Amino acid sequence: MSASRVLVLHLGLLAGLFALQFVLPAYHHGNLARIMVLAAYAVGYNILFGYTGLLSLGHALFFAAGMYGMALMIQHGGASPAPALLAGVLAGAVVSGLLALLALRTTGVAFMIVTLMFAQAGYLTILYFAEWTRGDEGFVIQQAQRVLWGIDLSQPTARYFAAWALFSLVFLISLWLVRRPFGRTLIAIRENEERVRMLGYDTFAHKLGAMVISGTISAGAGAAYGLLFGYAGASFASVQYSIFPLLWVLLGGAGTVLGPFVGTLFMFYLIDLSSGITSAYMLIAGVVLVLLTLFAPQGLVGELRKRIFRGLP
Amino acid sequence: MTLLSTRGLSKSFDGLQAVTDVSFEVAKGDIHALIGPNGAGKTTLVGMICGRVAPSAGQVIFDGQDITDLPAHRRIMLGMAYTFQITSIFRGLDVAENVALAARRRHPAPRVAEAVAKALRQVGLAPYSDETAGNLSYGHQRLLEIAMGLVQQPRLLILDEPTQGLSEGEIAGFKTLVRDLKSETTLLLIEHNMSVVMETADRVSVLNAGAILAEGTPAEIRANAAVQAAYLGTSDA
Ligand SMILES: Nc1ncnc2c1ncn2[C@@H]1O[C@H](COP(=O)(O)OP(=O)(O)O)[C@@H](O)[C@H]1O
Ligand SMILES: [Mg+2]
């Protein structure tokens, strides 16, 4: 696929998402705003899992670092949204850098376990400091505290636009990154790390970079989620929120730029629709997931790439 | 001029002594063959030279610098290139990207494409540059590895049994390639095929049971009784 067609396809998605806000009914309009923020999280996860080949079970730690970095700054630091968002993103960068230094000494299953354990430790830390975090219950960020540059982010239109802007930013970063030499080296590490090392690359430094970029994007999504939807709670640091981005990316297509969004959208509506039909909606969702892994093991966009769009990044 | 030397290099794997006290030198500009029966420790020895294997004892000196403590990627950046005995390529990526990954460490971005095309032409893989590497025939995959080494314009190119599994025609092409390279680089060549060794090498070191058994010109090695007993007479070569 030529570079210009790739660009048209990816920019087309962003243009489509922008235009949709004018036609969508309120319910789906709200959903899509939420999906775009969660998809931004999945984009971050995909950098490490899909492109670098490192399966983390601890990304909720980064998502929550962003969310709490932002929310605590507002709640207890009296900060306005812009510096609070920045604090959330920085918290994610620092936490992911520190965890990378420890976890990247391991590979494979050990890496999964180390990331899982540190994320659990993060979750417990949030519960432990309940005086500030309000633990499981969490806390609401008031409407008055959510006005960014004069824009009230609790309003649906502003919220949709903010979610779109965030998603567009990380989506374009991801598209740019994976076509840069750095991103191509990450892909090569996923394919054959020993060979990359013997070509003269410092693979540890590359994986460290990938994990910090991945963690920072995830934290940005977490911070935005808290700010746009006005709530921070410990459940966002739980293991469930580490599994979600893995599922979204697997469904949409690991190691594709479009996959995280497609997977998040698909899973969101799969659960939404099936819960409208039956209370056993997780059963329906489970069956569809099993069918997909059987018939589209590379994820939706991954299969598209295999069958139609060869060379899709 | 010596480009590479080892001093008392040894390696034991959990008690198994794979390489014992090897001191040898590779002169700049030479095609230096390393031969010896299977299990002699050749791969382990070059592994210690390029940094894949940590030595139990001894030193590696490259271009006058003690590199024993340098990690592999730093040694590569000093001008070594290494091709694996067991083909190690990026099977899921296309041929040109495989070579480009090797080229980007050495060449400024605008010159990568040109360097890749040249290396692919040198090994005869130019027509396959858009092919997925995993779809190449075994022989072509070996040639791809060599192209990945060449494109780095290394000062020392280490090839571990590059002709293993190649057809007669491909081996003939390889000999020509090696002779062409002589003006550009120094080669350390682990090789089982005696015709390749005899026709291309300037010097030959024979490794047996982890130790250097003999060293000399191809003619001297061929005439060496100990070598014949240990290796030539009993091998499939
Ligand atoms: N990673 C390893 N762990 C344990 N033993 C090894 C390892 N690598 C090589 N060996 C052993 O060291 C000896 C030398 O192997 P190698 O260097 O591959 O020989 P060659 O390349 O000459 O065939 C063999 O007995 C081999 O089984
Ligand atoms: Mg060997």
Task: Describe the fold and architecture.
The complex is a heterodimer of chains A (313) and B (237). By secondary structure, chain A is an all-alpha fold. Chain A has one domain (3-237). Chain A has 13 helices and 4 strands. In chain A, the strands form 2 sheets. Chain A has a two-stranded antiparallel sheet. A two-stranded antiparallel sheet of chain A has the order 2-3. Chain A is globular and about 55 Å long. The mean pLDDT of chain A is 91. Chain B is α/β, with parallel strands linked by helices and 237 residues long. Chain B has helices at residues 42-50, 72-77, 95-103, 109-123, 138-150, 168-181, 194-200, 218-223, 225-232, and strands at residues 2-13, 16-27, 31-35, 57-62, 65-66, 80-83, 156-160, 186-190, 203-208, 211-216. In chain B, strands 6-7-8-3-9-10 form a 6-stranded mixed beta sheet, sandwiched between helices. A 4-stranded antiparallel beta sheet of chain B has the order 2-1-4-5, covered by helices on one side. Chain B is globular. The two termini of chain B are 31 Å apart. The relative contact order of chain B is 0.18. The model of chain B has no long low-confidence stretch (mean pLDDT 91). The A-B interface holds A 181, 184-185, 187-188, 191-192, 194-203 and B 50, 52, 71-73, 76-77, 82, 84, 88-93, 97, 100-102, 104-106, 109, 148, 152. The site of adenosine-5'-diphosphate has 11 residues of chain B, from strand 2 and helix 1.
